[in-house]
Amino acid sequence: MSDPAVRLAIDELTTRVYLLLLRHPSPRRSALLREGLTESEIAAALANLEARGMVNASRADLIEVFPPDTTLPAWAADLERQARTTRSAVEGLTHMYNEARAGAGGTTSNRDVSILDTVEEVEAAYFRLARRAENRCVRLFARSRRMDELVISHPESIAIAHRSSASPGLQRQVVFEQSILEVRGAFAALEAMRADGIDVRLTPHLAFSVLAVDRTSALVDISHLDSGGGSLQVQQRELASALMDMCLGLFALATPLPRTPRSVSVARLTERDGQIMALLAAGASDLTMARQLDISQRTVERRVRAIMVELGATTRFQAGAIAGRRGLI
Description:
Structural class: alpha+beta
Shape: globular
Number of strands: 10
Helix content: 40-55%
Radius of gyration: 21 Å
Number of helices: 13
C-alpha cells in the first residue's frame, strides 16, 4: 500500500533479503527460512526483486541472482527518470499550492485553483472534469485501499470519459502502480479497460494520483495519504498543461500492460499459459499470478517451467522476451 511506514518496512525487508541472497553462492528459499524469515516475507521481497529485474525466483527453491553491477544501475536509472519527470512539475505545483492559499481573507480557493477537503469532493471532481474531455484524458493511480476497490468493483468508473460523436478521437491513457497486480481480479479488470479502448500501463511507484484533461484542467489527488484534504482542482491552463506534461512523461516511461493472446500458436501451450506469459511480461511474481488466475502457486511454477521449455528459454525473463518476439503477447 501507499502508507509510507508500510512502504519503508517492505523496502527494508527487500534490502535484507537481497543482501542475504548476494552472500550465498547458491541462494535458496529454504536458506532464507533458516535465517528466520517467514514464507510471506520471502514471497513479498522476491516479488519486489523480480519486478526490479534483480532475481529469478521461478523455481521451487533455487533463486537465480543476476549480477548487481548491471541490475542495480538499470533500476537506479529508471527511478531517476521517474523522479526527474516528477521534479519537472514541482515548480508549477508549488505555485499552484501557494496560489490556492493566497485568496483574500485567507480563503483556500479562487477561480483557478480549489482545495478539495474530502474524498467525496475529490470523486465528484473526477467525474466533473473527465466528462469535459474532448481530446485527451490521462490518469495516474497511486495505490490505496479505496483505489483498489474502485478498480476491481467499478472499473467502468476509470473510463469516466468516453468517446462519443462529439469526441471520436479522444485518447484515454491510464497508469497504475505495478503492485495493483497483487489485488485479486485486477488483471482481468485492467484487460477490460484496455478492451474499452484505454491505453493501460504499469509503473513501479506513483507519489500521488492525477487526472489531466485537454491541457485545460487537472486534479491532483493525495487522498490516499489522508482523508482527502489538500487535493487540488486546477482550472488554470498553464498549470494544467504542466501537469499534463508530467503525466505524459510518466506514461511514456511506464510499461504497457502485456496482452493475453487470443490463441496460443505453440502446440503444447494452453490459453491459461497465454495469461501466465502476459503476467510474466508484466513482472508478476508466481504468488501474484496464482492470485490473479485463481490457481495454486505450485501450478503456476509448473506451467512457467513448461513455458520456458517450450520456448527454449533458460530464464523467465528470456521467456517473456521470446514470447514478445514471436507475437505471443
